[in-house]
Amino acid sequence: MPKDRLFNKKRRVVSDFNFGKHTAEVFDDMLHRSVPFYAEVQRMIGEIASDFAVEGSQLYDLGCSTCATFLALDASVAKGVRFIGVDSSAEMLQRGRDKLAKAKFTREHELVHADLNQGVAINDASVVIMNLTLQFVRPLYRQQLIRTIAGGLREQGCLILVEKVIPSTSLLNRLFIKYYYAFKQRQGYSQMEIAQKREALENVLVPYRLEENMELLLSSGFSQCDVFFKWYNFCGMIAIK
Q1: 193, part of any domain
Q2: Looking at residue 218, what DSSP letter applies?
Q3: Are 78 and 51 within 8 A, CB to CB?
């Protein structure tokens, strides 16, 4: 697994973060070192998906990146469920195809190159996954996207949503950011890498408060939602149609 060194050299100008070739090459390492309990959250997503995925239906991973979730879910989700991955980065999708081929992935699946800001088609789905994806969709387009997802889900289907969230007070926000950066330092990132990546993400990743995400889900076609995972400013939610 190539190691994430995208921000280990001082940059005179830090440009906006993107999911192109250089990010795709190190993305798997980036996830494991930047997302607390990433492997456990993937396991939990598989556990939940296996209870909601229905034979003959479709499972969507929106923002599928390198298809790690497909590989994590393959053993736990019924074989009659078709997987569809959607991502805006052609480079991520190519790495996903390569990983699936190397793993001899035989489940029926499709990878779609599309920008979620422009909408997406969701059809006959029993499960939709957005793992650290919605936060990169422009706020202007989020409600329409969630409505589209709800409209394309079967009754009792679910959306599994993992996001960074903003705490309810400025004090907790400062503390949670401090704890998160301490986590990243324990994973081997330097203070310069952390600072430069934060600057690169500033205009790209726009988190909501937990309550805002819940309101968005309940006002867009879901009947119930709850939290299944929480670590400081990282949160996993499930919404049921």
Answers
A1: yes
A2: H
A3: no
Structural domain includes residue 210:
yes
Does the residue 172 lie in any domain?
Answer: yes
In a domain? residue 12: no
Domain count, the chain: 1
Alpha helices, H only, the chain: 21-34, 38-52, 68-73, 90-102, 139-152, 170-186, 191-201, 210-218
Kindly report the CATH number assigned to the domain that includes residue 174. Answer: 3.40.50.150
Which tokens in the block code for residue 102? 């190397």
Taking the C-alpha atoms of residue 132 and residue 237, their distance in angstroms, rounded to an integer, is 11
Q: Distance between CA 177 and CA 124 in Å, rounded? A: 39
Decide if pLDDT at 123 tops 90: yes
For 21, the token pair is 């070739």
Q: Which domain holds residue 89?
A: 21-240
d(CA 62, CA 76): 19
pLDDT digits (tens, 9 = 90+) for 72-122: 999 999 999 999 999 999 999 999 999 999 999 999 999 999 999 999 999
